Amino acid sequence: MSTPEFQDTFISHLVELRDRLLRAVISVIVVFLGLFHWANDLYTLLAQPLLHALPKGGQLIATEVTAPFFVPIKVTMMAAFLIALPYILYQIWAFIAPGLYSHEKRLGIPLIVASVLLFFCGMSFAYFLVFPVVFGFIAGVAPVGVAVMTDISKYLDFVLTMFMAFGITFEVPVIVVLLVKTGFVSVAKLREIRPYVVVGAFVIGAIFTPPDVVSQTMLAVPLWLLYEIGIIVASLITRPAPETDAYQPLSEAEMERELDGIDTPKK
Fold first, then answer.
1. Nearest CA to 70 among 92, 94, 40?
2. 3-class state of residue 153 by DSSP
3. Which residue of 30, 36, 99, 144 has the fewest CB atoms within a 10 Å radius of its CB?
């Protein structure tokens, strides 16, 4: 049977979890309300890579009655979540930090900051470098007489998939460091499986990108390079400390002094 102290502690943790989740949700809502006026502008900004690649006269279309309203709202909600993400992660960290050891706290803060920055870097890489190549390829291979006019809902789904793919891809260094620090795998093993990782990177690129070599390579190569960066960082932060107490053989002079001390009778 649980003791009253355990019940009180458990209930207090639930209350704290509820309060922190509520603060996180409120932060997203506040940012969303602040961005709501520019919902259409945010969607136009998101669609700019495709609009720029479309031939003259090409445009986005809405095939559903409510899509012109709800799609920009979804984009605004996504932007609000990304803007509030640092505060959300702070609330999560403030909840779990009291139960961590000091060395875990020292490792946790840099990993959280690096995770956020790398995810944003992955999204930026997809938006500024990958999207122009992908959409240019799609517009270029369209048959003669076919007007490229993408539905705004389908475009949003595609963009979110690409953002998630590249955002998670850029988290590879953090994942590698965590695996090494928790003891699941060693740096030597990570180096040993490097060829399989390279093959897997191109397989992932083929799954999450359109069927052209350029866009597949633009996902696979960063995935491989980030894996290498993760190995380098993991090897640096897990470098074994020098063994100060390791056995050292005695020199000849030390051996002679030891033997002299044994042979000399005590007074």
1. 40
2. helix
3. 144
In which residue are the tokens 């930026």 written?
A: 124
pLDDT in tens, 179-227: 888 888 888 999 999 999 999 998 988 887 777 777 788 889 999 999 9
| Of 5, 46, 255, nearest in space to 150 by CA | 46
CA triple 46-51-54, angle to 5 deg: 150
**Any idea what the Cα angle at residue 16 is, between residues 10 and 21, rounded to 5°?**
125
The rounded distance, in Å, linking the Cα atoms of 202 and 226 is 14
- 245 is written with which tokens? 């107490």
Rounded to whole angstroms, the Cα distance separating 62 from 78 reads 20
Q: What are residue 151's DSSP bridge partners?
A: 61
Q: Is 145 left (phi over 0), alpha (psi -120 to 50) or beta?
A: left
Among left, alpha and beta (phi > 0; psi -120 to 50; other), residue 209 is beta
